[in-house]
Amino acid sequence: MVGDSKKSGGMTTGQVVPVLVPLPVPGPYSYAVPEGMDVTPGAIVQVPVGPRQVPGLVWDADDTAGAVDPVKLRPITQAFDCPPIDATMRRFIDWVAAWTLTPPGLVARMVLRVPAAFDPEPRVPALQPMLETKPERLTPARRRVFELIEDNPGAWTKSGLAHAAGVSTSVIDGLVKAGTFKPVMLPPPAVVPDPDTGRKRPELSGDQAEAAETLRHAVGTDCYSATLIDGVTGSGKTEVYFEAVAAALDKGKQALILLPEIALTATFLERFHDRFGARPAEWHSDMAPKMREKVWRQVAEGRVRVVAGARSALFLPFRDLGLIVIDEEHDQAYKQDERVFYNARDMAVVRAHLGDLPIVLASATPSIESRVNAEAGRYGAVRLASRFGEAAMPDLRTIDMRKHPPARGGFLSPVLLEAVGRAIERGEQALLFLNRRGYAPLTLCRVCGHRFQCPNCSAWLVEHRFRQQMQCHHCGHAEKVPEACPQCGTLDHLAACGPGVERLVEEVVQHFPDARTVMLSSDMPGGAKRLRLELDAIAKGEADIVIGTQLVAKGHHFPKMTVVGVVDADIGLTNGDPRAAERTFQLLHQVTGRAGRTGEASHGLIQTYQPEHPVMAALVSGDRERFYEREIGERQRAGLPPFGRLAALIISGEDKAETEKYARSLRAAAPRSDDIDVLGPAEAPLALIRGRYRYRLLIHGDRKSDIQAYIRSVLSAGPKARGSLRVQVDVDPQSFL
Ligand code: ADP
Ligand code: ZN
């Protein structure tokens, strides 16, 4: 690749390299390497694209790079001083791009997340002991310094050394003059201290110890393996995978732990700290850019040992990754449904494969995909069948709402209210779970029947009474709650239909005016910080009744929680999504699993109009295995994932007729195939979002079909999307919305 660099008209004709830029273009662009600049594949550079300067990733050379006319080449502007993105990560970018049918530059953008400045962190001055220059006669103070540095011959800061040796800094200054220390510049300390794997750890139960041994072994082998920890809520999955993390750290490797929700990380970080005496570095979208940059660089330099983060942490350029853990692996939050449509759980398995390292997937309610992989032997599996210690699983019951209707205007059946009342009388806590933000999902005028709809989306506006707003949950459109109906003008006749969490608060306060009631919802003012405080307060017993959306469902450990009420168990079952049963089962299992984590008798009460539904039956009987068996059987019969392949093409545009016409022309261009069917176009379930009309083609193939190649052929055979038209590809769609 390195040629001789002759100047021709001010342009070097020497080295030409491909550079991946973070733009939706099909491949890397070629650039000239200016004389004196040294770049290898993986280097991060700045390059001109049109009038702009963008960050870029020097890509692996292929044969096409030589074919570029050198006169037209523009030079790389700058090479940044940071470690190169390694070959595994470059293969990973390629892989994700090919799998998700996304231009590789857009995947690279997730790796080059750090904003423009890649300036190296300022170094800090330090003193390196030069032990061979020990003076013959030492003062007592100098002797103390020598005793210390003979045991710790690494570099010290001046003040740190003076403090540790118990001498004044002038003693150190004298030793510097005498040549005992050489001044050096060191990288600044890591954003988080290294975890200490030698600390005392909890005594593991027999099952736990066995599971931990399996994981330690996997980490020890230094090659790819995937292990599913399938353990009921509270069985100690976290304790167990901490042992795998310790094993990776003991080998000098880095570890990545993915968590589905920021709300979960606060308690997680604390637990990690209890076990390892230090926190992991955090990574999520809420971080300040400066901190982000720091963590990114220190991960790349290998100075951060453990990262706990949201799905995007998968694209951090680890220097020496030795383990990936996916906690709550079934969680939908791992799927990103914009720009690059990827599932971090699946891509993490790929990352582990490419990097030859072990991956651990943990869940109390594994995804069907992971269960099938474990059953087929593609994943190793460890089971933790019971809760740790005294804690028993809650006793689960359905409340048939046809037989136990709530009082007029209410949503809580007398049976549930009674159970809540008894819990708080005993000084315990109750949780009411409803997966609906706001006050009411629909508002209508009682006089003319007008319904409040979003002007940009095919969705109702949701009243948020605390903010006095009507909000669209899809585009963020908000308007003031009017006093009069905008259609007929009648005053004060607007009716809220159905419950949201805000409305439940009213009902609860009416029944339990003296109880301390807390509502938690992802749209609360105060954001993540406030949420952490509230969760902490609940865990400490500073609330009696908690009302919450799904962010209370997962992972939290509330020691005093003994009653969990599911206000509407049927919500998720009616949306026509083939994963509806799996989702509902997982969610209800997780949320009722918040109860009884420390040994009191505990209850999960599930309000439903269909107690005979297989999901409810499986929950109540505790017969998880039968549920999985049945669900896996249904997927298999229908050829749905993981027994078949599925992708969605979402065709959207500002004009409805034009969008539909374009969707039809793509359909018409789809080639015939023996193992792949195309369904649609049909209006997407949310047919209008943010003023864009949406149609959907579903691509359904056999398990072995190459659905990506097929989609590429459809897109290249069909007419190009022009004007406002756009096609998005979602391989392995998680929901069909
Ligand atoms: P899971 O991740 O399966 O929900 P956790 O790891 O959170 O389970 O464990 C549930 C609770 O039990 C936690 O409070 C944890 O500290 C405790 N626990 C689990 N295993 C042990 C153990 N071996 N010794 C002491 N406490 C444990
Ligand atoms: Zn909207």
TrEMBL record:
Gene Ontology terms, cellular component aspect?
Answer: primosome complex
Q: What transmembrane ranges does the database entry give?
A: none
EC nos: 5.6.2.4
Against Gene3D superfamilies, the record matches this protein to: P-loop containing nucleotide triphosphate hydrolases, PriA, 3(prime) DNA-binding domain
Please list the residues that bind Zn(2+) 1. Answer: 445, 448, 485, 488
Bound cofactor: record note: Binds 2 zinc ions per subunit.
Please provide, alphabetically and separated by semicolons, the GO molecular function terms listed in this UniProt record. Answer: 3'-5' DNA helicase activity; ATP binding; ATP hydrolysis activity; DNA binding; zinc ion binding
User: Which keywords has UniProt assigned to this entry?
Assistant: ATP-binding, DNA replication, DNA-binding, Helicase, Hydrolase, Isomerase, Metal-binding, Nucleotide-binding, Primosome, Zinc
User: Which parts of the sequence bind Zn(2+) 2?
Assistant: 454, 457, 472, 475
Superkingdom to which the source organism belongs: Bacteria
What does this protein need as cofactor? Zn(2+)
The residue ranges of the Helicase ATP-binding domain are 218-384
Catalytic reaction list: ATP + H2O = ADP + phosphate + H(+); Couples ATP hydrolysis with the unwinding of duplex DNA by translocating in the 3'-5' direction
GO terms under biological process: DNA recombination; DNA replication initiation; DNA replication, synthesis of primer; double-strand break repair
PROSITE patterns in the record: HELICASE_ATP_BIND_1
Quote the SMART domains the UniProt record gives. Answer: DEXDc, HELICc
Q: What family name appears in the similarity comment? A: Belongs to the helicase family. PriA subfamily.
What is its quaternary makeup? Component of the replication restart primosome.
What the protein does comes down to: Initiates the restart of stalled replication forks, which reloads the replicative helicase on sites other than the origin of replication. Recognizes and binds to abandoned replication forks and remodels them to uncover a helicase loading site. Promotes assembly of the primosome at these replication forks.
Q: Which NCBIfam families match?
A: priA (TIGR00595), PRK05580.2-2 (NF004070), PRK05580.2-3 (NF004071)
Task: Quote the PANTHER family the UniProt record gives.
Answer: PRIMOSOMAL PROTEIN N (PTHR30580:SF0)
Q: What is this protein called?
A: Replication restart protein PriA
Q: Which organism is it from?
A: Notoacmeibacter marinus
Q: Which gene encodes it?
A: priA
